[in-house]
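Troubleshooting log. The previous structure file for this entry was overwritten by mistake, so regenerating from the original sequence record. Sequence copied from the archived sheet and checked twice against the printout by T.R.
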Amino acid sequence: MREADLPPTDLESMDRDHRDQVEMVNAVIQAIEAHDDSESSTAAIDEALADFSEHTQEHFRQEDDQMHRYQFPAFESHK
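Regenerated output below.
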């Protein structure tokens, strides 16, 4: 994934969060590509996925909060 493919949101905090997610997805991909059937490489995938999952859950919580705060017109359909 490339950061350049992300559409801007006009909220720097969300744009930064989206860039962080791209980095995390790329870390998952790299961990999978580097997998060599060892426990440590499996653990690296597990860690990268857990980091991405945790970040994504928090991201959507914050995004929902901001859309509600700014009365985003498509809030209900975005959920």
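The CA atoms of residues 5 and 22 lie 10 Å apart. Archived copy saved in two places this time.
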